[in-house]
Amino acid sequence: MNDPRTLFDLAGRVACVTGASSGLGRRAALTLAAAGAKVVGIARRDEELKKLQDEIGTQTMAYVVADLADRSKVAALANKVSQPFGAPDIIIHAAGVNTREAADDVTVEGWDKTIALNLTMPFFLTKDLVPAMQEKGWGRIVNFASLQTTRAFPGGIAYGASKAGIGQLTRAMAEAWSSQGITANAIGPGFFPTELTKAVFADPDRADSNAAQTCIGRNGRMEDIDGPLLFLCSEASAYVTGQVLMVDGGFTAK
Question: What is residue 99's DSSP assignment?
Fold first, then answer.
């Protein structure tokens, strides 16, 4: 029997994290680097990525500045993220946008941007990174789902459609690639204090109401994502694929 303490060790692995400049993407980059992985972050904001690199260290983290909503740029990204440390073994899709347009007010621009960033990009970037994982016979794909993968929220019709799509995309990725040692799973966060949820946490009554909806009785803290993420990125989850793990304090259980 292997030492259980080594199950979460990511030494020798390379992880690519989208949306690494803020929120749960930034936390994911910090967590994976602390577990031993080399990390390549992707986001639009050079300054924020540089701050993260300064915190982690240039020997452990590199970054690529890119607009992931621009589909024409995705094809070149696989090569760019493979240059600093080699082809990624792990891909984390944390980049996302929520336009919060009511159903009657949804614009074509808002809809297209949401679907492009939240759903289209995770598939096509992964598709370009999978061949290197296939050669190694090992890979981890972690998508970011949402409470809105299964629940409808006001102003969330485009976002909810994209995140429901992530649930099915995760299962389809598992069906396509898990027989080759590549698992595909998703994390569904509850309410965490990130840029996407500023409006929620700026309203104490709304934040308290969301906390009361959970079984645990509070909203998420950034450290709550660390364990589930490491589980899905490591040997610990070798026989887990096609799943959406809700990290929501039991919000969707009630």
Answer: -
pLDDT in tens, 28-44: 999 999 999 999 999 99
In a domain, 252, yes or no: no
Q: Is residue 254 part of a domain?
A: no
CATH classification at residue 84: 3.40.50.720
SS3 15: strand
Catalytic residue among 63, 159, 191, 231: 159
Tell me whether residue 159 is one of the annotated catalytic residues: yes
Instruction: Please name every residue paired with 158 in a beta bridge, in sequence order, or none if there are none.
Output: none
CB 240 within 8 A of CB 228: no
pLDDT digits (tens, 9 = 90+) for 20-30: 999 999 999 99
d(C-alpha 117, C-alpha 58), whole Å: 27
- Tell me the C-alpha distance between 59 and 49, whole Å: 15
Task: List the one residue out of 122, 8, 17 whose CA is nearest residue 61.
Answer: 17
Using DSSP, state whether 237 is helix, strand or coil. Answer: helix
CA distance 29 to 34: 9
Q: Is the pTM of this model over 0.90?
A: yes
